[in-house]
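hey so i finally got around to running both of the ones u sent me last week. sorry it took forever, my laptop kept dying halfway thru and i had to restart like 3 times lol. anyway pasting them below in the order u listed, first the sequence line then the C-alpha cell line for each. didnt double check formatting much so if smth looks off just lmk and ill redo it

first one:
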Amino acid sequence: MNASDFPSSPAALTGTVLVVDDERNIRRTLRMVLEGEGVEVREAASAEDAYERLVHVDPLDIDVAIVDVRLPGMSGLELLQKMHDETGGPRLPLIFISGHASMSDAVHATRLGAFDFFEKPLDRERTLVSVRNALRQAQLDRELAKLRNEVYGEIIGRSQAMSEVLSQVDRVGKTSARVLITGESGTGKELIARAIHASSDRFQRPFVKVNCAAIPRELIESELFGHERGAFTGANSRRQGLFELAHRGTILLDEIGDMELGVQAKVLRVLQEGEMMRVGGRDIVTVDVRVLASTHRNLSELVAQGRFREDLFFRLNVVPIHVPALRERPDDIPALVRHFVRSSCRTHGLAERRIDDDALAALTAYRWPGNVRELRNIVERMVVLSDSHLTRTDVPDDVLGDHAAQLAELDTSQLEQLLSGDLTAPLKQVREAVERAYIRAQLNANGWNVSRTAAILGLERSHLHRKMKLLDIARGK
C-alpha cells in the first residue's frame, strides 16, 4: 500500500488514531494517508507500548486504534484479550489488520469487541471507510458517556436500595422494553426514566415528558396525539402531538394513573400498533417511540376498581422498577444534603457552605414524607437563610419537631423498671442495661432501621452493629 493509492476523501476526518505495527513503512504510510484526511496520528511499534498508551498514559486522547495482529512479543489479539480481562473490554474502537490472519482469529477478535478486521495489503477504500466509521462510533460513545454522566450525576446515592435500582436501569436501558417506574412523589422517578433513555440507543433522540396529572382532561388527547386545523375552537393550524415529537426517541407518561380511560384506549393502540390519529384527523400517523410510564399510585388497585385498563397495565408493566422512599435509604441522605448545599450555593451565587455533623444527623433522622424533593427544598432554604456554615440551629423547627416526637414516643418501660429495682447493681451493669433498653426502644421506634437509628444516636452504623452484638440486641429477642 502506498500513500498515493488513497485519493482525498470528500469530507475531512477529525480525531486521533493510534497505529500499532512493527513495520515502520506501514506506520509511515498510514500516517501520511490519515493525516492527509485531517486525522492526528500516533504510533506504537509493539502491543506492550500500545497497552500502556491505551490504558495508562493517554487513554482519553486516542479515539481509534489500528492494530496489527502479528506483533513481536504480545500479539494484537493478546492485547485485545488483556484489555478485555483487565478493563472489561476496549474503551475505544480497535481495527485489526493482518497479512496472515485466519478466520478463527477474526471470529475471536470480534467476540472480544474488535470494531473491524481485514487483511493486508490494505485496500484504500476499505481502510478509510473503516476509520471513518470507527471515529463516528467513538464520537457517539463520547456523547453517550457525557449524557450518562450528566444524568447519573443527578442520581445521588450508593445505598443498597439505590444500587439495585441503578443496576436495573443499566440492564433495561440497553433494551427496548417498556418500563413502569413506581414510587412515592418526590423520589426521583423522572431521573430514573432519563437514565434509562441515556443508556439506550435512542439517547441522541428526543426525551419527552408528559405530566398526565397536570394537563386538563379536555386537552390531554390533543397534547398527546396532536390535532388538525379546525378540530375544535382555537385549533387554527395543524399541531403535532407529543408522541410525534418523541418519534424515534422516548416518551415518559408521568403519573399515568391519573389518565382517563378514554385516552388510555388510544395510548394502548400506539403501544400495540405504533399508530395514532390526530384529533379531527383521518390519516393514520405511524410513530416509533419507546414508552416509559411512572406513577405514585397502585395501578393494580386501580385496575381492580375499573379505573385503569388491565390490558394497558400489562403492556406498560413489562419491567417494573420501584424507586425507594428516602426514609428507606437514610444512608444516602448525607451525600444528598452535601450535593444540595453545593448546588444551592452555585445557584444563588453564595460562597460555599459546609454543614455540621449535628445538622446532618438531624436531617438524616427526619422521615421526609416529601422525599428527595422536600429535602432539596429544605436544604436550599437553609443555605439561603444562613450566614456561614450550616448548624443544627439552621434546621427548620418542623424537621427537628418530627425527631422530638419520635423520641417522645419511645417505650421507656424497661428504663422505669430498672430504676425502680435493685439499686445495688454495679455501675457497668446499670449502664449496659440503660444502653440496651434505649437502643432497643430507638430501633423499635424506627422499624429496626439500623442506619436511621445510628444517625439518631450519633453513631456510625458499624459502631451500632458492634453495640447490638455486645449487648445481645436482636429483633424478636
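and the second one:
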Amino acid sequence: MAIPKVLGIETEYGIAGGPDQDQIVSSSIIVNAYAQQGRTRINWDFEGETPDLDARGLPGLIAFAPIVETHLANTVLTNGARLYVDHAHPEFSSPECRTPLEATLYDCAGEEVMRRALKAANESLDVHQAITLYKNNSDGKGNSYGTHENYLVGRHVDFSHIVRAMVPHFVSRQIVVGAGKVGGETEGALQGGAVFQLSQRAEFFEEVVGLETTLKRPIINTRDEPHSDAERFRRLHIIIGDANMSQVATMVKLGATSLLLAVLEDQGVDVFPSLPKHPVQAVRAFSLDTSLSATVLCEDNLYRTAWDFQDQLWHLANNYVQRDGGSAVAESEEVTFILTQWREMLDGVDGDRDRVADRVDWVAKLRVIEGYQERYDLAPGDARLRAIDLQYHDLRAERSLAQRVGLLQLFDVDQVREAVHNPPDSTRAFFRGQCVARYPEQIVAANWDCVVFDLGSGPLQRVPMMDPLRGTAELTAHLLERCLTANDLLDALDR
C-alpha cells in the first residue's frame, strides 16, 4: 500500500556580485545576514549524514559522493527549513511537507526568505559589492546547480523498480514543467544547435543511474540517505528538475511525481510505459525540441514523443485515482486540482500554447524572447536574449520578468509570509520549527531527524524524530504549549 508522500524541495540559488565576486563568500553573507536578522544561530547537526550510501548496495568505488561541507554557513529556521551554503550557492531546503500544494507554498516561502536575506546582506555592503540572486539552474558558463526534490517511499519497493517506473517520467516531464533556456552550454547542446531549450538542466545529465550530483549527473540518483527509519523508508532524491518560477508548475511537478510513486507502490512496475532505449539521449533530445515532435525508440520497439510519455502517465495516474483514490498524496480536492492542471498544461503545450502561458515557464519565457527578438530583429544567439532569460529568474520583484508575464498565483502574500516564519502542521517539521522558535538559547543543533539540546549542565540531549509523520501539530502542539523551557519539554518527553 502506498505510504504518505512526505516531500520537499531543495533550491540552490544562482548568485552574482559580492566582495571580489567570490561566490562562496557572497553566499555566506546571504545566509548569515538572514540568520542574524532572524536571531537564529542554531547549527546543523551533521551526525548521521551518509551521502556516500548507494541504494543499489554498491561500494561506490567508482562514484564520487557529495562532499559534506561542515565549515560553511548553515542554520535552521523557525519554519523548520534549512538555510545554508551548498558549495558556492545559498540553498533553501524546505521543511518536510505532507502534500504537493503545501510543499509549493514552502518553496514560495523560500523565495521570500532569500529576498529578505538579499536585502539585509546588501544593506551591509557597499553599492559596488551588491549581490544579486537568481532562481535558475545554470550560470551561462557551463556550471549548473540544482533544484532537488525529495519524496518519501516505502523501503519495500525495490530500487530497480523505481528506476524502471520513473525514468519515462523524468525524461519527458520537462514539456510541462521545464523552465526554458536560451541557447546551450555543454558540447552536446551546442552540437545539437540549441537555440531554445525546454529545460535548464537537461543538457547536464550524463547517466541513467548514479550516486553523484555535481559530476556525471544521473537521471535517477542513488543516494540512500533516508533521514528517517531506514528499515521502513527511503528518500527518493531527484536531481533532474528545473527551478520553476510558476507556482502551478512547481505543484504539478511535485504532484505528478507523487502520484506516480503511489501508483508504483500500489500497482507495481509493469503498468508503466516502456523505457527509452537511450534515456540520456532522450532527455537532451526532448529539451531541444520546442515542436514536441521528436521521437525516441523504446524498449518495446515503439517510438514515443515526450508528449506520448506524459499522456500515458497522466492516464495511468488518473485511472489510479479513480480506482484507488489518491489519499497517499493529498485530499481528493487537491489531487483533482493536480490532475486537472497537469492535463490542461499537457494539452496546451501540444495545441494552443497561449492558453498555458500563465502556468508553463518555458512557454511564458519563449513568448517574451520571441517578442523581443522580433521587435529588435536580433539573431538567435544575441547576448540580449540570454540577458532576458536571466532576468526572468531575477529574485528581485522589481526586476523579475517572471513577475510581469501573468503567471497564476496559488497563494497570497499573507500565506507566504506565514510560511516564512511558521512550520507546516502536518509533519515533524512542526516540532523542529517550534523548538527553534521557543527554545533558541537551549538548542545547539538540529537536522531532519533530531533536535540537540544543551541544558547548561550534563551532556547534550538528542531528541530523535525518525518518523516524518510524527511531531505534527496534532501530536505535539499541546505538549509544546505547556512547556515554557527546554528543560520542561525534555522532562515531559522522559515521562
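quick thing i noticed on the 2nd:
The chain has a mean pLDDT of 94.
anyway thats it, ttyl
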